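Sequence and fold:
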Amino acid sequence: MAKRLTTFILIGLVLGLVLGWLLNAHYDDGTAAAAAWLKQLAGYFTIVTTIFLQLIKMIIAPLVFSTLVVGIAHMGDTGALGRVGLKSLGWFVGASLLSLTLGLALVHLTQPGAGLHLPIPQTAVDAAIAAKSVDPIDIVKHIFPASIIDVMATNAILPIVIFSIFFGVAITAVGDKAKPIVRGLEGVVAVMLQITDYVMRFAPFAVFAAICAALIEHGPKVISKLAYFMGSVYLGLATLWLLLITLALLFIGKRVFQLLRFIRDPALLAFSTASSEAAFPRTLEALERFGVPPKIASFVLPLGYSFNLDGSMMYMTFASLFIAQAYDIPMSIGAQVGMLLMLMITSKGIAGVPRASLLVIAANLDYFHLPAAGLLLVVAIDNFLDMGRSATNVLGNAIAASVVAKWEGELGESHGSPEIEPLHAPSKGL
């Protein structure tokens, strides 16, 4: 289904480019009347994008709650985290901040959204005006919810995360009595993933409509901007690879180059499928053959897939500020740092969700009063970007597991071949 969806999205992209370009060329004669007509015509197409965006928002609250709670519950007894868990989380936080900060710096350096000058939807203008009256007390009330039902109804992502953490930790503390709840939430996760699959099947139509509307109203300059945006993201991912490898070199020495050979095939698998989770079993096996003890690899790697998606986090910062630039919405340094921290928090717990980065971006666009319609600017090329960030996620988690094993003094010698071997069941537990 994923390959067919990608094909249909590409078809929608091409058709949208062709039709939008033809309509713009036919009607745009440089007059104000033509501009008004093109804007009205583009508005008809945006009805389709509005439906898609509403469906995306419909998914966010139940998906974040169920996946985050189940992820915490599966960690087991909080005491089992112990020393390895703290070291892992310490590395994850550092790597997350590095990824997000790099994305923040590069988006300012490359300015991929500058020059688009897209008109801000009226709803975003109203939200921005309303936001000016918010005081610190309101912010605190927003972060710590008085009613989980209320914040879920409004898709207030941060309060949902706060409640989910409390709920997940409480489930872990209660133990066996809470197992039915965990099983029930696992069912909710499965259902929400299926709904996500249904919604994403509508993506080709949304991409067609969004690209067509953009070209109708603004002409072919949008094409060059999207290509420049994609090139800028891959420049950022390549820089992140260099930084992560350099950090690994400091902790595990020249063996990092051996590690790269062992994870080459899992990274290629993640790149070709645009899914770092698809490469999870191969990555776990490669780490064990590299010399990471099974008890550490089987603990750190699953944890990393919830808390250490380096490529995805860099991309989310990049894409969010690209949208702000495209709509000429100024953001203070404080607001950008706040967005960085929000992305670090809200990106946790939805690993394995198709197009998870898009869902997190959508939630944070609302939080910072940026136009949700800007999300459609990146949906058309998201699969190409997902390939790069998925491979980066594999690298980041493999390095994290290796570094933690080194810190524990348990990084052994490598054995076997770096090539993919027949998959065996990985060892479990600490």
